[in-house]
Predict the structure.
Amino acid sequence: MNPSGATSAVAVLLFVTIAGYALFAGADFGGGIWDLLAGGAKRGAAAREAIDASVTPVWEGNHVWLIFGLVVFWTGFPSAFSAVMIALFVPLALSLLGIVLRGVGFAFRHEAERLSTKRLYGALFAAASVMTPFFFGVVVGAVATGAVPANPGGNVLSAWTSPTAVVTGLLFVATCAYIGGVFLVADSERRGEPDMVRYFRRRSLAAGLVAGVLAAIDLVLLRESAPYLWPRLLGPALPAVVVSVVGGIAALVLMRSNRRHLLRGAAALAVAGVVAGWGVAQYPWVLPGAVTLAQGSAPEAAQWALFVALGLAVLFVLPAFVWLYWLHQHGMLHESEPPPAPALAAENRAAATNRAAAATRPALGPHPILETAVIALVVTGIGRDLVRQLFQRRNRQG
Amino acid sequence: MSTPLLVVAEGAIPARAQMGASLGFHIIFACFGIAFPAVVLIAHWIGIRRGNQVALVLAQRWSKVAAVIFAVGAVSGTVLSYELGLLWPGLMGRYGAAFGIPFAIEGIWFFVEAIFTAIYLYGWRRLSPWVHWWSGMPMVVAGILGAFAVVAANSWMNQPSGFTLQDGRIASVDPWSVIFNRATPYETPHMVLAAYMVVGFVVAGVYAVGLLRGRRDRYHRLGFLIPFGVGAVAAPIQVIIGDILARAVADQQPIKFAAMELVDNTQRGATEWLGGIYWNGEVYFGIGIPYLDSILVGFSPNTEVIGWNSVAPEFRPPLANLIHLSFNGMIAIGMGLMVLGAWQAWVWKFRREVLSTRWFLIPAALAGFASIAAMELGWIVTEVGRQPWIVYGLLPTEDAVTTAGGVPVTLAATVVIYGVLTATSIAVPWLMGRRWRAPGAAGEDTVQTPYGPRPGRVGETPA
């Protein structure tokens, strides 16, 4: 049974959200990975500062893709969502742990004063940036290989400990490092820091190569472990796969040039191609071999509600998002040190000399008693009316 | 075989404990997400409009604190959306198509708020003052709309509507009546007002402590007055909404109401218990006011109040005493906060000054904790009172819980992480405050204002 148009559209929406998360939050995760690999406090200082400046203003917004994805998944395909959540409880819980640690580390390390606490939070942020994409990859690998049953009775350990799932996890980490590196190259170029450009260029090249190798291994593994996915990857999904490969190679070539928008676009294409290829290859299954799109879909009205939400998103979120990135890219957003103690010192001294502050106190109202009486009258009046209103309603009902 | 520990680790208890811990934590941060932008923007507005540098400094510092709190809130909110699936797959699998809709709407507003938060927080240096102020406005609107959507989802669990079932699966959905179910009109304003009260009184409490310590400068007076004013305005409205809400609960969820008021047998002329513990048909240690419960429910001593004995024991909420005492505690605190606000309003009306007596400042300093306590108590009333149902009258909590093992482990992790998170979220703003008061900075008398000439990037040391 083929899914209805609305169901397919919800599936597309879900994959677009995944791609959005992979691109935007993936770059942030990549930043965290490079932060982790930047070396000691002194040696890595410049790189860490560049990463920080690129990621700080946007990470929270990027994070919302995930929440939106979860919502679309559970509203659009509730039964499949529930199956995934039960079977893959462990890797999902671990990815969540990573998200929590990362947010905490990021939020607090800016405020930490001593180097040791900064280091601790920085380490949390960086380590979690590896953990989260890895376990997301594991989850995707488990779903793609068709290892999630329709009605799991509990954890399905074998689903996510298969070689394919683990390699997919590693592939996700490498991809995040790659896309994060590419974005950092572009950002450093914009900020005019040639040292950093070279620094991140070398690293993203390396990450790109590692990601390529891992992708090749994953493909070989999929041939055995994903009997449904494999032929379709070489069939209907082939264009997406080709786009991804071409984008990846183009990005590696463009890395040498100074065309940062093209570079970014090519890298984005490589990631988006993988997500699209996965989506097309899985069609028409949500959980290959267990639940099809048509079987797992929510009633049509719920799907329409999702489209309404999407409409709202296009209306409200998109312009805001564009503005945020425009401001970010034009260097309008900075972390500002709040002013030092509001040199209210002078103010403090003044307050001390006339503590009663009598000089600034306005003269008393001319008729305090009269005003009191008026306020009392109004308050009791409103109160009485309220009571009367409520009683009347009760009488009518009774 | 069933040692007490095993009993606790079985069934829905660990999942409920984890959900409770996460929600009880997140709800505080969510309040800041909902109401803090408004408080910051009021200070910001006063700052620009009246050229009040002190207000500008306050606004900027608050936005700095907000950055940390919002980040924690975003993270704990993600935890919750995960946990809905991880802990309650039975709920999401069966009712996700209906229950998910308000969350989809909420996602949009959260997105909007996150984006404008970023713009507002990092826009102090380069945006022009009014553009910057307006870039904060969407946070206020999105905060309220987002709260509306999330609470609509919770209301739906209390008053499910807007779908038809076929073989235990949802066959059709009416999104409109899912969102605007019978409990939405009462629950959402109650929560939004609670958020404004919590933020108002918590922030004011910080400055009340400063005032108590003798820092009576304009900075502290204004820092106290703006948030306290917000809380004081919200408090009386909250009392009225709460009263209407209680009557709605009596009508829509009579058994929950029976637990809230300790009514065992259905009766006319029901007694209103202030405090008190129910044990074997008697209420001990409580002050009973005859007929008042009936009068409150239906404005007549003859109104019939339904007792919990009208349903079988397995359909009654557990821990009636907890629900009752929480309910009473929430009301008592709410009334106290209203009186406190009225007192300051009175003084402000006639003398235009912040009360400086310890009799006022000590309770004002504690008002923040009190308002958080009141909100948590109210939440206990709603959620524990809904038990044993996760979807009222349709899906028992036991049937919704995950079959996956490992919940006790994640519960332990949750408790540890949230403990650390709570401590840090308090410590970080406290450290910031200490840094702002540091003697090193007090020597200069020039106020470095947000829109002044761009200072060098001091203090931005990399990690």
In short: Chain B touches chain A through 112 residues (CB under 8 Å). DSSP finds 15 helices and ten strands in chain B.
